[in-house]
């Protein structure tokens, strides 16, 4: 048995250099990550990136071509039965028997999972309550809504009290109300379980997960905390400012602050784009360049300041230098009050696109385009 030691014992999941190559040479390559107890990890990637393949290997439904997977220190290759007992799996399509009642189905799963007969009734009662299935016990599964079927899928996944829950796109195909309800249930399940969940929905990561793994073309391309990713990915430091004062003078002061590499006046269109979440389309213009001067010259027509006595700008600094204090002191010295100042950072959506877009274009040329897309909203 392979032993994986950590400070507090074993990691709940250890995936070491795992590859799975299908006959067509697609699949996943050298996947390497571990999960500690209590983590809720979002597994994000475009269609065909390798999420399901990875999850099926973790849950023991598919054997890796190379590498090892251990659950609570138990090797999946050497002890598949024991290791699988520690995992609850909700595949993309829940494994339900539509003609069974909810209770009969859970009874069947309890038998399959080897839950002792004398404990079954209590345990089934607990998960029915936990997943809000009270009142539906005697209903035929076929007659229930998709949201309720997903709850039953989650119930079968947690029935045997697994340490690790693996959920493959748990909110896919649900309506907005059902999505909110299932997310809430996952959040609650995350209080007692370690959870790995795959999704196409970026805000799902922000609302549910304390860590995100991004997979692209069979390889992990990013592993980190959602709120820290932006810092590690930003190449420049950007801050948006609203300053009270004469436009030309304010712009010129900002450009001369040490560390500042670009100053771009924000228009009403930019403000509207910010409101709808899309990034401004104009390219940033470096301070002092010919382009900046010509833009300045034609600024009356090219840009429309949001208020006549204030200037809204996006200031950039190379090498991620934090120029906020320098901006503050310079503008204070010149008596141009700062009405607002906000550090800008990449959204998870921008990070995702940055990491996957080019390669996706390559992929689209070499294989059939998929009809599913990564969505940026619920
Ligand atoms: N049984 C198989 N035989 C051959 N190729 C396969 C098989 N299953 C998956 N693949 C290929 O392996 C790659 C990864 O597929 P996988 O289903 O794991 O991706 P995914 O990230 O789960 O995608 P989706 O979001 O569409 O479910 C894809 O290129 C896919 O076409």
The strand count comes to 14
> What percentage of amino acids are in beta strands?
15-25%
Radius of gyration: 26 Å
Largest sheet: 6 strands, mixed
Mean pLDDT: 81
Please name the CATH topology of the domain at 13-86 and 162-231: Rossmann fold
Order of helices and strands: EEEHEEHEHHHEHEHEEHEHEHHHEHEH
- Total helical segments: 14
Q: How many angstroms separate the termini?
A: 42 Å
What is the CATH H-level superfamily of the domain at 13-86 and 162-231?
Answer: P-loop containing nucleotide triphosphate hydrolases
Which outline best applies?
elongated
Small-molecule components bound: adenosine-5'-triphosphate
Do you know the CATH architecture of the domain at 13-86 and 162-231?
3-Layer(aba) Sandwich
Pfam families: ABC_tran
Keywords: ATP-binding, Nucleotide-binding, Transport
Family: Belongs to the ABC transporter superfamily.
GO molecular function: ATP binding; ATP hydrolysis activity
Structure keywords:
378 residues, alpha/beta, Rossmann fold, 6-stranded mixed β-sheet, 4-stranded antiparallel β-sheet, 14 strands, 37% helix, binds adenosine-5'-triphosphate
Describe the structure.
Keywords: ATP-binding, Nucleotide-binding, Transport. This is Vitamin B12 import ATP-binding protein BtuD. GO terms for molecular function: ATP binding; ATP hydrolysis activity. Belongs to the ABC transporter superfamily. Pfam families: ABC_tran. By secondary structure, the chain is α/β, with parallel strands linked by helices. Among the domains are: 144 residues, Rossmann fold (3-Layer(aba) Sandwich), CATH 3.40.50.300; 110 residues, Alpha-Beta Plaits, CATH 3.30.70. Strands 6-7-8-3-9-10 form a six-stranded mixed beta sheet, sandwiched between helices. The N terminus and C terminus are likely disordered. The chain binds adenosine-5'-triphosphate (ATP). Adenosine-5'-triphosphate binds next to helix 1.
């Amino acid at each position: 048995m392979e032993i994986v030691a950590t400070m507090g014992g074993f990691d709940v999941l250890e995936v070491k250099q795992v590859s799975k190559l299908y006959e067509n040479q697609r699949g996943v390559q050298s996947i390497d990550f571990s999960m500690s107890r209590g983590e809720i990890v979002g597994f994000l990637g475009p269609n065909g990136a390798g999420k399901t393949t990875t999850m099926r290997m973790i849950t023991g439904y598919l054997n890796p071509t190379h590498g090892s997977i251990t659950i609570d220190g138990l090797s999946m290759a050497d002890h598949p039965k024991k290791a699988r007992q520690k995992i609850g799996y909700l595949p993309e399509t829940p494994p339900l028997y539509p003609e069974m009642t909810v209770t009969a189905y859970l009874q069947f799963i309890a038998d399959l999972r080897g839950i002792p007969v004398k404990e079954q009734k209590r345990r089934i009662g607990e998960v029915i309550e936990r997943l809000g299935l009270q009142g539906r016990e005697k209903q035929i599964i076929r007659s229930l809504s998709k949201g309720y079927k997903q709850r039953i899928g989650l119930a079968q996944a947690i029935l045997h009290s697994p340490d690790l829950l693996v959920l493959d796109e748990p909110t896919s195909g649900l309506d907005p109300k059902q999505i909110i309800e299932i997310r809430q249930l996952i959040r609650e399940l995350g209080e007692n379980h370690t959870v790995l969940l795959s999704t196409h929905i970026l805000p799902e990561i922000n609302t549910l997960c304390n860590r995100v793994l991004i997979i692209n073309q069979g390889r992990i391309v990013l592993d980190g905390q959602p709120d820290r990713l932006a810092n590690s990915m930003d190449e420049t430091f950007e801050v948006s400012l609203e300053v009270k004062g004469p436009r030309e003078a304010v712009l010129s002061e900002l450009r001369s602050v040490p560390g500042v590499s670009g100053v771009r006046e924000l228009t009403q269109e930019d403000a509207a784009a910010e409101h709808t979440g899309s990034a401004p389309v104009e390219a940033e213009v470096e301070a002092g360049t010919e382009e900046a001067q010509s833009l300045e010259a034609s600024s009356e027509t090219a840009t429309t300041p949001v208020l006549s006595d204030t200037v809204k700008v996006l200031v950039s600094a190379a090498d991620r230098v934090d120029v906020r204090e320098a901006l503050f002191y310079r503008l204070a010295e010149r008596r141009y009050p700062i009405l607002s100042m906000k550090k800008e950072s990449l959204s998870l959506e921008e990070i995702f696109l940055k990491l996957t877009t080019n390669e996706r274009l390559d992929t689209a040329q070499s294989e059939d385009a998929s009809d599913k897309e990564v969505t940026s909203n619920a």
